Each structure stands twice: as structure tokens, then as C-alpha cells.
Amino acid sequence: MNDDEASTYKDSTGKFIDCFEKPLASNLHSFFKYHPFQPFNNVNFNPTKAYFRKENNSTFKRQWLTYSKNKNSFFCTFCLAFGSDDNRLTSGLKAESINNPYTRIKEHEKKSDHVNNCEAFLHYTNATDIKSRFSTSKHYEVERKRAVFHRLIDIIKLIGKRGLSYRGAKNAEAAYTLDNSALDHGNFLEIVLLLSKYDPLLKEHVDKVVSKSQNAKSHKNETTSGRPGGLLTFLSKTTADYIIEELGLLMKKEIAKQIKQSEFFTIQIDSTQDINVHDQLSVIIRFVSEDVNERLIALVDCKSGTGKNLCDDVCQVLKNLNLDVKNCIGSSTDGASNMRGQYNGFSAWLNKESPEQVHVWCYAHVLNLVMIDTTQICVQSKNLFGLLNSIAVFVRESYLRMHTWEANSRFKFISVIGDTRWWAKDRCLTKVFGSFKHPEEGLYIDIIKTLLEIHLSNTFSPDVCFRAKCLVDSLLKYETILTAHIFQQIFVSTTPVSNYLQVKGMNVVQAFQMIKQTIKTLRLQSRKCNDIVKHAKKFIQWANDKMDELEIELDYRVEEKFHAKRISKKKRMPGEEVSDESYIDPNNRFEINVHNVVYDQIVTSLEKRFGSHSQLYNDLSYLIPEYFNIDVPEIAFEWMSYKLKRFDQNITAGIIQSELKDFICKWPKIKNIAKTSENVFEDNIDEDSGEEGNGEIENNSNNRCLSIGGREACKNCIVCCYNVLKKYNLHTTAYRNLFLVYKYVLTLSCTQVRCETTFSKLKYILNRLRNCLSQNKLEHFLIMSIEKDILMNIDNEDVINNISQRSRLLSDSLKL
Questions:
Q1: Which stretches within 127-276 are classed as H helix?
Q2: Where is the HAT C-terminal dimerisation domain (predicted)?
Q3: How many CA atoms are closer than 13 Å to the CA of 57, on its beta-carbon side?
Q4: Percent of the chain with pLDDT over 90
């Protein structure tokens, strides 16, 4: 050791300890790391004579001797560390010559206590003392059990990710039954047993606990159902419950941590009735950190569906996660009165907790209502979708009809139209008539073949044959073809909007832009009935040619025009000068009464239902690069600056306008600079990723706007502006207020479709065969199934450390 003395060292807790005091057993490592301290310079004794001894013409160093310059004393480190009694060299032997230190050192090293302490030091260094052996053995056993626990946690993660059940039959979960492969032990234990065949560590653990459990059961005087108590196996339902609970809590903690990193957030809520007739409220939080995120944070069993109760439930959820409800800047719900009621709805009560929050009626629900209204506006549209649904129901009613269908069709089923989802009408229409301008993709000819075969067959009853004939006749009508093509053209514009509104992470600006473009497109098409007629004629020609190829009877062909109807004339009474109404052509009548009515209805409904929040949308229009204009009106951003005052008292509409004007001037250069780095990022995408993987990336990375080529950002949308400001640190000083505006806009939620996704998972997890989950466990399973990325990033060590604190027995088994 060098000649610079340190007077203290740190123990295991970080506390400073005097180097020359008797150390605790836990500090021996730090103590001997410092000692022996044997300086040779600037000492008032002969270091060679003190530090070394001669025996049989050989020189040996006294490793036990240490010296303190501050105290000018010698100490025996071995007696300090392992001795039970004090002596001259534990209290300090002064180095002055008057004390004859060399003689005292020789006397000390011959004492029996010192010799025993030297042996204790040798045992310590070789780790052969009883305590060390026990500690090492226990440490190994704890490490082994923790390794087993790691495997069990990974199994629970797999079960939670896939939304599977984990319990088995009532009397098949006990450890003593695990050697019986004929029993249903449940997914958790079955996966454990499967992995134990290939994992030696897990096999050793399973074999050991099975043997112990069987021995314990055989020695019990009274046999009872279930497993014998008092045996810690790690394979019980209790351990699985502990893991599920800790995973759920850690996931919610991680989500709350991410939300706190953002300045504000929005809420999406919706409720549904589960299989146990409980009203389950799904609470989704949307926030912007590095990305745009939408996370499920709770599933609440609602005791009351009033707006106040819903608000109380949401506030309690936020409180449990230490989130401030006043940081909520908006909410999105469906159109139910208890949600958006002006006085007692959820949004009204949330306004009291978080003033100035913006409530948005879910765009997806609004679009759904618009399309439902449109498809029911006239008799022809009702007849069309009623016909399509009747065909599907007719075929599915009997296995004989289904066999006939399967013999004629290259597809296996026909879609039934749902009552509440308009996209079900689009799906059914597309399956029958194909996509717009591409009839060969549809099942129209297959359906006619099937229905005619049923009609002409002797196997079916007269009633069935008659119904088949009626369905065929309706399909062949010219009116049916024209009406179908009207809605095919409408769905071409509306379906992409609907799909985007159901995407995770979608932003309000892009949704609003798509809706505006859809309205514009539909308005342009609203008086172009001739285009519909032209495409309908092509479809009719294609269908008749296909029926000629299949040699279908000539009596069955698609009509190419409306039937001529006799004009009714009223008898003219003597002296009456009123003439009959002028003759109206059937094509013109259809255009006026069907085509124009349908288009007028959808355009009017879209404009009316999406007309709220006009101030917000006016401000949004100035932020989109596509519409950048340096001439920003003086009233721009007054509404938005008012909303953002609570997060930055200094923000004003004028400051936002100034920063936006400067940003607009520099945007062409900024986006060109950013283009290179974006290309590098996109080039790192795996070239071998399949279609399924690409779909997952698309759904979960909507903050990353890609151009049509898919290799670089479009640099023409609000997401690109936000990413550029964030990436190049322009949000700290240069465009701090503008960045806050962009972040506010991206945080706003205009749908609560993620709640619908939650309910789809809920029906899968909680079903008729699995309906006894407690509310907490149901919530944990649902979060694991939906927030898979967070689940797989949870550190297993954190789970084990938390579980080890649940009981003394678990602490002894798992705590290092």
C-alpha cells in the first residue's frame, strides 16, 4: 500500500467507518481492502524491524500488522477483525521507543489468541468457515429459485400476451398431480411441464416439488381435496396470482411514468356490458412524449352510468396513478346523453375538474351515424342492403343450402350485415359486387348460380325454392345494380376515413383533413349520375357475358334498363282544364329520387355533424405545411393560446403567430436538412419483414409519417413538423410556443375507437367458459393483452423483488 493514509472507509450502506476500529462482519471485505497499511517514509521507527520477522535465516512479512500515522500506533488487523477480547494491539501500541514496540510485537504474535485469529483470517480468505459455507449455499439456492422464477414470469407474460386462461381443473393443480399427464393442469402448469422436458433447471425444480408434495400428502392423516399446505412450490395458483398482480401494477406504473413525462393528456372512455352483466368502463389516455401514444390504464366496474359517477371513476383512476386531472386537455366519448350531456354528462362534470378541456364527439361514431342515415334515406337503399342481408341469412339457415353454396363458390362464406356498424354494409356490398370498377372480385355470379340451383332443385321445399327465385329476381333488377354502384362509389371515399379513425395514434389534424377531402369529393360526385350509369352498364355487360359462359338459362339475365311503366291518366271531368302531369323518364326519376337524395343526405350530414369546434379547426389549418401562408390573420390562435394559458402563462396569440411566420419561412430549408437523416432511419427497416409485421408497424407507429415510397417522411404534415422541432432541439428556445401548439394538437383525441378495441379483447378474455375472474385480475389480464410492448419490457428482477416482500417465507427464498 502507498504511504498516503486514509482515515475512513465506506461500509455496505455507504457510511464512513474509522479504519482502526473493530469492523462488523458485513464490513470485513472493505476493512481488509484497506489493511495492512505499512508506510516506510516519514516514520519514527525502523519499518524493516517492525514489518518483518526473521526465522531460520528467512524473512517473513507481518501481514497482520498495520500502522496509523494519525495515532502513531501499531494495530493487529486480525485481532481487530476476529478477536473477542481487547489487547495492546487492538487498542493501539504506541510506536515510541520508550514502549519497546519491537519486543511487544514479537510477544503478541506468539499469543494463543493471536494464533487463533490468524487461523480465523485464513478461514475467511478461503471461505471455509461455517458462516461462509452456509451463506454461499443459501446464495446459490436463492439464485436457483430466482432463475426458476424468471421462467415462470416469462410463462405468465406469454399467457397474458395471448389472453389465455391459466387455471386448470379443480383437482389437477396440486403439485402431487403433476406427474399425471392425463389431467388438465391448465395452461400455466402445462407450459411449465412442457418446458421442463427441455430445461434441466426447471425439470429439477418440478421433480423436487412433485416428490415433496407427494410425500407430504402420503403422510397426512386426513386427505382433503387440493394441495397439502405449508409447501412452497412456486407452481401454485397463489404464486401465479402474485406474478399477474405485480406485472399489472408495474405496467400501470410504467404507463403513468410515461404520461408524467408529457405536460398534458386527453381521455377516451366508453363502457360495455360483459358476460357477467357488469358495466365495464374502459379508460384510455392519449399523450405525446417521443411518440403519439394511446394507453389503457384501467378497466372499472361501473356501479352507476350517470355522468357524475363516470367522472368520479375516471378521477379516482388518475388519482391512483398520481396523475393530475387538471392536466387533462380533452376527452372523447360517444354520443350517449350520459357522456356528452350539456348539464349532467361526463364531459360537463369533467369540465368542473379540468376547466377548458375540449370534448370531442367520437369521429368514428359520428361517421357511423352519417352512413346509417344515408343507407336508410330512401326505399331503394333499404331494399339493396335488405336484399344482401337476406341472401346471407337464407344460405346460412340450412346446411344443405350451405353445401350448395360451397360447391359453387370459391369462397367459404357470405357476410351478414350488422345492425350498428356501417362498414359491415361496405364489406357485404364489396363481397357481392366486387370493388368499384372491378366486378370480377365479387361473388355476384356465384350467388346467382347457387340460388338458381336451389330454385330448380327437387331437394328443397317449395317455400325455399320460391324464396330463392325472389332473391334472384331482385339481384337481376337494373335498379339494384344502379343503387349498388352508388354506394360502391361512396364507400371508396368513406371507408379510408373510417379505417384511419380506427388506427392507434391517429391525429385530429389528419382526420379533419380526410373528412374535408371526403366532403369535397362527394360534393363533386353528387350530380354525376351518368358516371354511375356508365359503370353499371359495364357491370351488366360483364355479368351477362359470364352467365353466357356458364350456360345459365336465357330467362335469367341482368336487366339493362328500367321497365317501362304505363302512364296513368285521370279521367277529365266536363269543364275541367287541368292537364295530366308531364311524363318523367325512369332514368331521370331514379337520378332525382335516389342518386341525388343519397348524395345530398351524406354531404349534408357530414357538414352538419363535423361542424363543431370550428375555432379549433381554423387554427389547425394554419399549422399544416400544405397550407402554409405567411399572411396569418390577426385573430389566429386566440382560441388555442387561451387553452394553453394554464401550461404557459406567457403564451399569446401574437407570439405563436410570430414563431409560425418565421418557421414557415425556414421550413423549406429545415425539411431538406431533415430529409437525409430520415432516409438513414428508414433504411434500417428490415427488408425481410412480412406483411403481418408491416401491418403491426403501421398501426403502432402513426407518429412516423411516411411518403408513398415508404422510405422517407412526407415533410408535409403536422406530425413531420412536430418531429423536426423535437429532433433538432428547436423546441427549447427558437419555437418553444409553436412546439407547444403542435404537441397540444397531436394530444387531442377525436375518437375513442381504442376503447372498442379493448372491448374486443374483453370478450375474448372473459367468456362463457371463463367468467369468474376478479375485477383486478381481469384488468391486469386486459392490460397485458393490449399493451404488449410494455409487458415484454417489464424487468423480471423487479417482479421477483416485489414478490419477495409479500411474506417472510418468500423473502427467505428469493431475496439475495
A1: 130-162, 186-196, 200-218, 237-260
A2: 723-782
A3: 0
A4: 22
Who contacts 512 (Cβ-Cβ below 8 Å, separation ≥6)?
610, 617, 620, 750
CA distance 375 to 492: 15
Q: Tell me the CA distances in angstroms from 433 to 401, 416, 492, 536, one per residue in order.
A: 21, 15, 13, 11
753 and 505 in contact (C-beta within 8 Å)?
Answer: no
**H-helix or E-strand spanning residue 475:** helix 462-475
Give the Cβ contact number of residue 49 at 10 Å: 12
Is residue 406 classed exposed, middle or buried when 0-12, 13-18 and 19+ CB atoms within 10 A define those classes? Answer: middle
What is the arithmetic mean of pLDDT over 793-816? 90
- Express each pLDDT in 143-159 by its tens digit: 889 999 999 999 999 99
What strands lie across the sheet with 93-94, from one edge to the other?
65-68, 73-76, 93-94
pLDDT (tens digit, 9 = 90+) per residue, 174-199?
888 998 888 989 899 999 999 999 99
Q: Which of 10, 35, 42 is nearest to 20 (CA)?
A: 35
The pTM is what? 0.72
Residue whose C-alpha cell is 340460388: 451
In three-state form (DSSP H/G/I as H, E/B as E, the rest C), the secondary structure along 221-234 is: CCCCCCCCCCCCCC
Confidence at residue 688, expressed as pLDDT on a 0 to 100 scale:
36
Task: Please give the C-alpha separations between residue 116 and each of 31, 78, 79, 98, in angstroms, as whole numbers.
Answer: 19, 9, 9, 29
Rounded CA gap, 211 and 205, in Å?
A: 10
* Sign for the pseudo-dihedral over CA of 453, 459, 460, 465: positive
Label residue 328 left, alpha or beta by phi (over 0 means left) and psi (-120 to 50 means alpha): beta
- Tell me the C-alpha distance between 444 and 446, whole Å: 6
Domain residue ranges of the chain, discontinuous segments joined by +? 8-126, 368-562+589-609, 614-683+695-746
First CA to last CA across the chain, in angstroms?
Answer: 33
> Distance (Å, rounded) from C-alpha 396 to C-alpha 400?
9
pLDDT range class, residue 705, cuts 50, 70, 90: low
Contact 432, 444 (CB under 8 A): yes
Strand partners, 417: none
Q: Which of 16, 41, 46 minimizes the C-alpha distance to 31?
A: 16
pLDDT of residue 95: 84
Q: Rounded CA gap, 318 and 266, in Å? A: 12
Q: What is the pLDDT of residue 430?
A: 86
Tens of pLDDT, residue by residue over 231-255, are 889 999 999 999 999 999 999 999 9
Set of cell numbers at residue 527: 350530380
Question: What is the rounded distance in angstroms from the CA atom of residue 369 to the CA atom of residue 335?
Answer: 10
**Rounded CA gap, 620 and 745, in Å?**
8
CB contact set of 472 (below 8 Å; sequence gap of 6+) = 448, 451, 452, 455, 556
Q: Is pLDDT at 703 greater than 80 in this prediction?
A: no
Going by the DSSP 8-state scheme, the letter that residue 179 receives in this structure is: T
For residue 146, give the nearest of 234, 31, 218 by alpha carbon: 234
pLDDT digits (tens, 9 = 90+) for 62-105: 888 898 888 888 999 889 888 888 888 888 888 887 778 888 88
- Sign of the alpha-carbon dihedral angle for 358, 361, 364, 366: negative
Phi first, then psi: give them for residue 282, nearest 5 degrees.
-95, 130
CA 289 – CA 397 distance, rounded (Å): 52
Q: 76, 114 in Cβ contact below 8 A? A: yes
- How far, in Å, CA of 244 to CA of 257, rounded? 20
Question: What is the chain's Cα-based Rg?
Answer: 40
